[in-house]
Amino acid sequence: MRHCRQGLRLGCPCRNGDRTGQPGGHPPRSNRLNPRSFNRHLYKNRNLIKRFFCRIQQFRRIATRYDKLASSSLSFVYLACTIA
């Protein structure tokens, strides 16, 4: 039985892509006997995109979708991208 939240690191399929056969999105631990596959280029891209969206979400207007029109919402996303 796999319990990821209780400290057992047996390789949770939701974290390392065992179900889909894809390499994991997080780097493997250094003390594992059989390290899982890991693509550093994909991890860098995923991390960059995740940090970008977290930075954009700091703007309340974007996070809550305050604008009703798509054009005004998109223009504020452009503005937030230039500021962030």
From TrEMBL:
Chain intervals for the UniProt region annotation (Disordered): 14-36
Residue ranges of every copy of the Transposase DDE domain listed in the record: 21-83
Pfam families xref list: DDE_Tnp_1_2 (PF13586)
Name of the protein in its database record: Transposase
Species assigned in the record: Caldichromatium japonicum
